[in-house]
């Protein structure tokens, strides 16, 4: 039986100054015999001009022991004896293996060994097998490329397996070298020149664990410089969209299929190539880079850096993946076929195509939707608007909903999935809100779970976030992620710092920020808003919320709470829902019975409250008084500012009358129609409209402004 000490002695009887092929065979036998890595590493280091610790470590980890330890030890002993070493017939007792013994005088080489090269100035920094040399003299990359091109025919069988045609091989001047011993390997290699440059890469033909482990070999830095970007001409050949792959074979595959592609696994190479072209005043035609990472962890780690580098250089860039079942570009091309690959390339150049659905492939599959939150009403990741008149108890209403979700209860007969809730109270003082939550939970008989209901009282901190809405949104996202919230309540939105609820642009930006919350957290966002002024029964339920119509168009679910004309004078309301993802439910009635809104089937048929039907003249009379007061403000302002462009007058008037720009424009149009303002159109200057006050003799003249309500 061979001990650890025995196999260590066998190992040290061999020379570490051997070919890589011999080194791998010795490593395999030593590991199979039960040898340890530290001993093998120390032995390999006795040939410092060849030793590369990272390569040694990765090669060791890639080898699986044969399972026949005695046979492997016997093979080591046999090789050692062939060098002239002698051993006792009886293996010695086990003892600690030597770690770094003094190297014996050079023994006769084992088969395959090569003479050691001259000592290097900086041993240990020289990589194993990186240069192409012959008899101590370095060979130029041009010579290697020319020699390899003469044997191109021998490369074609391998290239054919990779889908590369003979024409493409000739276009890229791909060649072949048998037993590339000048580079320190006995393997055959494919030589891939870099177009327009004295540089190449020598690609391995064997699989990862056979022979050489290095897939690519490059010319020595001393004569060829640093590694560089493959296929630099793609940046200047007129193509606006250029693919970036990790390896030359993938880039050649794309070029053969009609695309423009470069290959680089180092963001620094890309930046250096771009900087060099700019310095030489070479015109780059590329505008957009499409980064195609290999589907492995290493590719994902480097692709972000490539993206940052390209954007910093002023280019458009985005990441585009091969389908998940394929490893890389060439794998996809070989297995999917030409048609599928061409369609994918088209989609890569127009990224929006990836979002188009081929219903022929999915019509029999039920699409996966986000989890339900409130059955038949709301899913996670959606937005729900709760709107109602002032003092209708909207906060009480939302507290009931939040408690139902946090406990997995029922919300007016609709089951809720139990989920963590994050409630942002922006209006009530902390203790006042806490009292409401406690009272509602007691009335409903609910025990609050502090791990499921989280309340952020921000009323006292309004000044810290109201001037920066994005700060509030980012804080919401961070907190929601921390507690894994699935429902986020914002009560009310007018306290969020929304600039102008009547501005479609401002409301659209606010809704985009809500989308950011749902996208980043996966939670539903439920937010509260008030009704507009005026009579609500004449409006559609989705149009009752105050401000821009964007509110109604953006939400996935809208629930309105509208006051009822109850026979007993109680506070009754009708809840009407408009849903995007579910069938519209029947409206239902509720009655406020402190501290909750109770389901009130007896109020189902009550009409909506109508001030006119109650004999009140307030609506029309008060509205007329309000309008006249607003017109007086406009006339006073016009006396100071006019003549003035109509658009600018609208912008100046809106904040003074506390109305949106549309309403300000309507009132200015009424004043023009009443001839209390004059509008002149300059047809020679893009039909711009100028507003002036009428002179005494102009009051009976017709204004050239049509009363069409156009504010511009």
Explain what this protein looks like in three dimensions.
- This protein is an alpha/beta fold.
- It has 24 helices and 26 strands.
- The strands form 7 sheets. Strands 17-16-18-19-13-20-21-22-23 form a 9-stranded mixed beta sheet, with helices on both faces.
- The longest helix has 24 residues, at 618-641.
- The chain is elongated.
- It starts with a helix and ends in a 20-residue tail after the last strand.
- The model is unreliable at 90-104, 109-131, 615-619 and 699-712 (pLDDT under 50).
Summary keywords:
single chain, 712 residues, alpha/beta, nine-stranded mixed β-sheet, four-stranded antiparallel β-sheet, 26 strands, elongated
Q: Mean pLDDT, nearest integer?
A: 82
Q: Count the helices. How many?
A: 24
Q: How far is it from the N-terminal to the C-terminal residue, by CA? A: 99 Å
Please give the largest β-sheet: 9 strands, mixed
Structural class designation: alpha/beta
The proportion of residues in beta strands is: 15-25%
The coarse overall form would be elongated
Poorly predicted spans: 90-104, 109-131, 615-619, 699-712
By DSSP, the count of extended strands is 26
Strand order of the largest sheet: 17-16-18-19-13-20-21-22-23
- State the share of residues found in helices, binned by percent: 25-40%
Estimated radius of gyration: 39 Å
Oligomer: single chain
Topology of this protein?
Blueprint: H1 4-12, H2 20-32, H3 37-44, H4 53-62, H5 69-82, E1 133-134, E2 137-138, H6 141-149, H7 152-161, H8 166-171, E3 175-177, E4 189-193, E5 200-204, E6 216-217, H9 221-224, E7 241-245, H10 248-256, E8 261-263, H11 267-279, E9 288-291, H12 297-312, E10 316-319, H13 329-336, H14 338-349, H15 359-362, E11 372-374, E12 378-379, E13 383-388, H16 394-407, E14 410-411, E15 414-415, E16 421-425, H17 430-444, E17 453-457, H18 462-465, H19 469-483, E18 487-491, H20 504-521, E19 524-530, H21 550-554, E20 557-563, E21 572-579, E22 588-593, E23 596-599, H22 618-641, E24 644-645, H23 646-656, H24 661-673, E25 678-682, E26 688-692
Parallel strand pairs: 7-8, 7-9, 9-10, 13-19, 13-20, 16-17, 16-18, 18-19
Antiparallel strand pairs: 1-2, 3-4, 4-5, 5-6, 11-12, 14-15, 20-21, 21-22, 22-23, 24-26, 25-26
